[in-house]
Specification:
Shape: elongated
Strand order of the largest sheet: 2-3-1-5-4
Helix content: 40-55%
Structural class: alpha+beta
Mean pLDDT: 83
Number of helices: 3
CATH class of the largest domain: Alpha Beta
Order of helices and strands: EHEEHEEH
CATH architecture of the largest domain: 2-Layer Sandwich
Low-confidence stretches: none
Strand content: 15-25%
Distance between the termini: 65 Å
Largest sheet: 5 strands, mixed
Length: 118
């Protein structure tokens, strides 16, 4: 049995990580607060902590959270830990968010201009 501490994740991500791992590996989960335990579905299969850790990393990558979280392991238990971002990285993320939002505004303005011309 492998247990995962998901207290650092948002509530919607806690459910997503469970469904992601259950879809990828032959395991069943038991949730007790912020602690999720994974057991093998059948006695013939054996899923180890490193395998679950690998899929936890894949989950973070698929949700684009690799820069925000990391995974620590200790004796069959895994923990999501929030990483401290450097100031430069935080500023870059803010700039990209602003650029994306202003880019969508520009596209909306262009569409409105095109409609006015018609």
């Amino acid at each position: 049995m492998v247990s995962i501490d998901v207290s650092a994740l948002d509530s919607n991500l806690k459910e997503d990580v469970v469904s992601f791992i259950e879809a990828k590996l032959p395991v069943k989960s038991d949730k007790d607060g912020d602690l999720i335990s994974f057991e093998d579905k059948s006695p013939r299969t054996h899923v180890s902590s490193p395998e679950i850790r690998t899929y936890m990393k894949r989950f973070l990558h698929s949700k684009d959270l690799k820069k925000q979280f990391r995974i620590l392991s200790e004796d069959g238990s895994l923990t999501f830990v929030k990483q401290k971002l450097e100031k430069e990285e935080e500023e870059e993320e803010e700039k990209t968010k602003k650029a994306e939002s202003s880019g969508s505004k520009k596209k909306e303005d262009e569409k409105a201009e095109d409609e006015e011309e018609k």
